[in-house]
Amino acid sequence: MAKRDYYEVLGIDKSATADDIKKAYRKLAIQFHPDKTAGDKPAEEKFKEATEAYEILSDPQKKSRYDQFGFAGIDPSAGGGQAAYRDFEDLFGGGAFGDIFGSFFGGGSGRRESTPRGSDLRYDLELEFADAAFGKKVELSYTHSVGCSTCNGTGAESGSKRKVCTTCQGQGQVRRSSGFFSIAQTCPTCNGDGHTIEKPCKTCRGTGTERKKNMYVVQIPAGIENGKRIRIESQGDAGPNGGVAGDLYVYMHIKDHEYFERNGNDLYCLVPVSFTQAALGTEINVATLDGKRIRLKIPAGTQNNKLLRVKEAGIPFLHTPQRKGDLFIKVHVEVPQNLNTKAKDLMSQLAKLIGEEDSPRPVKLSSIE
Fold it and tell me: Do 40 and 125 belong to one domain?
């Protein structure tokens, strides 16, 4: 049977970029990969054909020769389908093939990691508003896996040994043949560890780890925001059989404040003032987030919803706590209620003096501060 044109095999034209070629091959390789189509000879041939096409077209020099001279311009051992690869490891062990299959089939090398890593853990921490703003040391209490104290993390009883698995010879994987390919799979005897234990430790049952309660003090940085996380290295679960410990991720859940609201590093709050204070102007005492009190000037004639700014009385910037946002105070002018007769007379006199308009003209909402 005559060989198909490589561009036709991948479903692309000669103007295709290197990225187009890679995407086209990736799609076909996933569709016809032997791990998904074991025993399907036509699928195996399509996978082999696509791989051959990609190996030529992904190499600029081979592609150039193929574009000029067709199949005659290619060395047979590189693109002629003459058993160019010894096994699956050679085919996907690195280079262009390795980067395509690494994330889909666990890498091309077929070699296990000698020390499996422990699991990462999540800790959800509830924080007071002010503690998140100014930082605080917090003691965390949680349970995680640590090296077994009975077997010192070996997983074996005293006097017993860990032996190299006779099925996989310590590789953690075994290979099965599928026509043209040799495919690696996790060893069923040792479950990928590469070793077996004569007598598993009774405490950890051969895992090399046990569950223990842990106390850890973490410094919450000033200015951290709700939903952010802190990574604490090596405070997760210990890896089995002496493997590296995972990390602990602490997620922030910040409580609402009684009256302050946060926007970035700025704070906002609402402060009520009386009708006369707004009209005549005054100074009032206002509490800040850090518990201090400041004197705030209310200018005469202040309107309802007026925003007054207090510089650098807001939230510290994360990692640069010497910088702070601002505090914005919205003035809420309270209209007096339940006036007695004398107060009503005075208000009536005031209305006449200032010449209140009984037919006001409407204004746009956007014109109000």
Answer: no
Q: Which two tokens stand for residue 357?
A: 């308009």
Instruction: Please give the C-alpha separations between residue 263 and each of 135, 279, 308, in angstroms, as whole numbers.
Output: 18, 30, 16
Q: Print the domain residue range for 249.
A: 114-145+208-255
* pLDDT value of residue 181: 60
The per-residue pLDDT for range 317-346, each reduced to its tens digit, is: 998 999 999 999 999 999 988 899 999 999
- Is residue 228 in a domain? yes
For 155, 262, 317, 340, the CA distances from 314, given in Å and listed in that order, are: 54, 9, 9, 41
In a domain, residue 312? The reply is yes
Residues 230 and 279 in one domain: no
pTM (2 decimals)? 0.61
Report the percent of the chain where pLDDT is more than 90. 46
**DSSP strands (E only) in the chain:** 121-127, 136-147, 162-164, 173-178, 181-186, 195-197, 209-220, 229-232, 248-254, 261-263, 266-274, 282-287, 293-298, 307-310, 316-317, 320-324, 327-334
Q: How many domains does the chain have?
A: 3
Instruction: Return the exposure string of 27-39: e unless at least 16 CB atoms fall within 10 Å of the residue's CB, then b.
Output: ebbeebbbeebee
Q: Which of 272, 294, 274 is nearest to 285 (CA)?
A: 294
Compute the distance between CA of residue 18 and CA of residue 46 in angstroms, rounded to an integer: 21
> In this structure, are 327 and 220 located in the same domain?
no
Q: Cβ neighbours of residue 241 under 8 Å, at least 6 residues apart?
A: 115, 116, 153, 154, 155, 162, 193, 195, 207, 208
Is residue 109 predicted with pLDDT exceeding 80? no
Neighbours of 346 (CB within 10 A): 12
C-alpha span between 353 and 347 (Å, rounded): 10
